[in-house]
């Protein structure tokens, strides 16, 4: 099935502050068989209400994509992949391309998660091509950026974010940039239980938005910037109420339906 380009009818330039629809995206990483994924979605759907003012997505392993697309159809819960290759096809053993995802009716894809950058050698150069390829295919990309603990301690957070944002977006025009979601995920907060303070998160997401603004002011108003790193039901409301934070990328907290639904509800209240 051919998908419309993400945001084609302006859905990501519509609600928050008059401009952006927040997104809560659960990143399952390498967790859940198809049977476990089915159990999750059966537990999640009765706990959340589909409403236009908030987007909800689950980012699932390749093997569970088709099942989750089928099970979530009509519910308002979108299904994302966790990575993809930038080429359309070819001799890239083990990889999956954008057309393979859109054929399944997948909505979007996480790109440049710090685990992919660290363990699988994903480079800024490849990511720039992947973001463009995702948009071209009609997938909504979530580009992840963030600093290590050492970089933060050395005062290099801004430099790292500037580099990753500029490199990740450099092949795109203003229209395309407006359709990207950027997730600020401090690496020291991922899977550690050590969530960023509200001030740290706001400074960073606002800085990411300002970096987009340096490239194109209109896109800065439209682009969604998420926070990610140890988001749980009990800290979600404060983070999601930050003025520049348009939602969350949630790892561990998205693995059980009750906890993930709690974060979604916190987002609705924020
Ligand atoms: C992530 O994997 O993107 C993430 C934010 O993980 P966690 O919520 O577990 O810190």
Written description of the protein model:
- Helix 1 packs parallel to helix 2, helix 1 crosses helix 12 and helix 11 packs parallel to helix 12.
- The chain has a single domain, classed as Aldolase class I (TIM Barrel).
- The longest helix is centred in the C-terminal third of the chain and has 18 residues.
- The N terminus is likely disordered.
- With 270 residues, the protein is an alpha/beta fold.
- It has an eight-stranded parallel β-barrel, surrounded by six helices.
- It contains twelve helices and eight strands.
- Helix 2 links the parallel strand 2 and strand 3.
- Bound molecules: phosphoenolpyruvate.
- Phosphoenolpyruvate binds next to strand 8.
Q: What's the CATH first level?
A: Alpha Beta
* Shape call: globular
**Which stretches are low in confidence, meaning pLDDT under 50 for 5 or more residues running?**
1-18
Strand content: 5-15%
Spatial separation of the terminal alpha carbons: 35 Å
The CATH superfamily name is: Aldolase class I
Number of strands: 8
CA radius of gyration: 17 Å
Offer a few descriptive terms:
TIM Barrel; 8-stranded parallel barrel; 270 residues; 43% helix; binds phosphoenolpyruvate; alpha/beta
List the helices and strands and how they pair.
Elements: E1 23-27, H1 34-44, E2 55-59, H2 62-72, E3 77-81, H3 98-103, E4 108-111, H4 114-119, H5 124-137, E5 140-145, H6 149-153, H7 157-169, H8 174-177, E6 181-184, H9 198-215, H10 217-222, E7 224-228, H11 233-240, E8 247-250, H12 257-269
Parallel strand pairs: 1-2, 1-8, 2-3, 3-4, 4-5, 5-6, 6-7, 7-8
């Amino acid at each position: 099935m051919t998908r419309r380009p993400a945001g084609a009818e302006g859905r990501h330039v519509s609600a928050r502050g008059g401009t952006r629809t927040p997104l809560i995206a659960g990143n399952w990483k390498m967790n859940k068989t198809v049977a476990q994924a089915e159990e999750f979605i059966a537990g999640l759907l009765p706990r959340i209400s589909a409403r236009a003012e908030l987007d909800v997505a689950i980012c699932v392993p390749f093997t569970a994509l088709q099942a989750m697309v089928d099970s979530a159809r009509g519910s308002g819960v979108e299904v994302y992949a966790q990575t993809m290759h930038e080429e359309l096809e070819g001799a890239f053993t083990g990889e999956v391309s954008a057309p393979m995802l859109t054929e399944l009716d997948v909505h979007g894809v996480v790109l440049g998660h710090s685990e992919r950058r660290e363990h699988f050698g994903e480079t800024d150069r490849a990511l720039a091509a992947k973001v463009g390829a995702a948009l071209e295919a009609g997938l909504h990309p979530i580009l992840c950026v963030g600093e290590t603990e050492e970089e933060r301690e050395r005062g290099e957070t801004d430099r790292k974010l500037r580099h990753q944002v500029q490199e990740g977006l450099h092949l795109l025009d203003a229209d395309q940039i407006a359709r990207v979601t950027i997730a600020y995920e401090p690496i020291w907060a991922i899977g550690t239980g050590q969530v960023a303070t509200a001030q740290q998160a706001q400074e960073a997401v606002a800085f990411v938005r300002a970096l987009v603004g340096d490239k194109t002011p209109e896109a800065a108003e439209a682009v969604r910037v998420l926070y990610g790193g140890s988001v749980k039901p009990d800290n979600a409301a404060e983070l999601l109420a930050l003025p520049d934070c348009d939602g969350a990328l949630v790892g561990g907290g998205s693995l059980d339906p009750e906890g993930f639904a709690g974060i979604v509800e916190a987002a609705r209240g924020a």
